[in-house]
Give the backbone structure.
Amino acid sequence: MNSPFDNQFKVPLDANKLSSLGFGTRSERRLSDLKNYFQNQERAEELIGEHDPVIYEVWELEYDKGGRGISLGTTTIYPGDVDGEFFFTRGHFHAKDDGDEVYIPLSGEGYLAVSTREGVSDLVALEVGLLYYVPGHLAHRTVNTGDSPFSFLCLWAPHIDHDYKTINESGFPELVFRSQEGIRVVKNPNYGK
Ligand code: PAN
Ligand code: ZN
């Protein structure tokens, strides 16, 4: 496709304003789309029955694979948890290791969880005002650890294929829970099972 930026090359660094520009696609993920991702499946089922909360929404401008340009998208993760486990994005690998990505936090508080295919993982607090470069071989998931929406902008090359299956099956090595001290990181007892 032609770039909408051919004529409009300045865009605001604001998730709400970006998603209302009139191009790109908007999608939302509810708890029912993510229910087998959370530790306490029983509690997830209950919440789905009550109001099936929106966990996050994404606005994306994705280019044709193999085409020109840089794909971009904003994600807003709403505040909340399932039995203490903070709301997060599904998380994925990029199918090819050269599929690097840039993350730019816009507002709110959150973490970026990364992991190799062998389960070597890290958890990084994302700070507004800093840019985060995610090498293509790392799975990545974001977590809202605050009490307000957590928004960030991502930039990636159009040729990237998103692999959701691996994380859907194995989970992430570390999980992030609400605690009296703020957050508590625990090893995922079901990782790889
Ligand atoms: C991001 C993610 C976005 C939603 O744009 O796609 O935050 O997370 P999931 O795709 O894991 O549901 C990105 O990493 N793109 O490559
Ligand atoms: Zn990605």
Q: What stands out?
A: Residues 92, 94, 101, 140 surround zinc ion (ligand 2) (CB under 6 Å).
